[in-house]
Design a protein that fits this description.
Order of helices and strands: EHEHHEHEHEH
Number of strands: 5
Number of domains: 1
Number of helices: 6
CATH topology: Rossmann fold
Strand content: 15-25%
Shape: globular
Distance between the termini: 9 Å
CATH superfamily: Response regulator
Length: 121
C-alpha cells in the first residue's frame, strides 16, 4: 500500500471525480480533484503530485494534450489515462507520450488503485 501518496484526478464528470476521490481517501491516499485540465495546470499540484489520473475526452484541453504539456515542461510523474471511448489510436498516443496505464471506463476502483500502487512502488 502506498500511503500518503498525492494523487491528482482530472475529469470533467463530477460523479467520477467524487467516487474515485472517496475511494482513494478511504485507502489512505491524499487526493485532489480538478474538473478540467486547465484547472489542474493552474494549480500548485501541477508540480507536487505523485501520480495523475486523467480522463482522455474533456472539453478544452483533453487528456493527451495535458500529457503532452506536462512532459514538455519536464514533469515525470506517472500518468494514468482513463476513457469511456477507447481506441487503439488513443491508446498508442498515450503510451507514446509515456502514460503508465490506459484504462477503460467505467474504471474499477480496485484496479485503478492497483495501477497506482504499481507505478508508485
Amino acid at each position: 500500500m502506498v500511503k500518503n501518496a498525492r494523487i491528482s484526478i482530472v475529469d470533467d464528470d463530477e460523479s467520477v471525480r467524487s467516487s474515485i476521490r472517496n475511494y482513494f481517501l478511504a485507502a489512505g491516499l491524499e487526493v485532489e480533484t480538478f474538473s478540467s485540465a486547465e484547472n489542474f495546470l493552474a494549480s500548485s499540484s501541477r508540480t507536487s503530485t505523485d501520480c495523475l489520473v486523467t480522463d482522455l475526452h474533456m472539453p478544452g484541453i483533453d487528456g493527451l494534450e495535458l500529457q503532452r504539456e506536462l512532459r514538455a515542461e519536464g514533469q515525470s510523474y506517472p500518468i494514468i489515462m482513463m476513457t469511456g471511448y477507447p481506441s487503439e489510436q488513443a491508446r498508442a498516443a498515450a503510451r507514446e507520450l509515456g502514460a503508465a496505464a490506459f484504462m477503460e471506463k467505467p474504471v474499477d476502483p480496485d484496479d485503478l488503485l492497483e495501477q497506482i500502487e504499481s507505478v508508485l512502488a
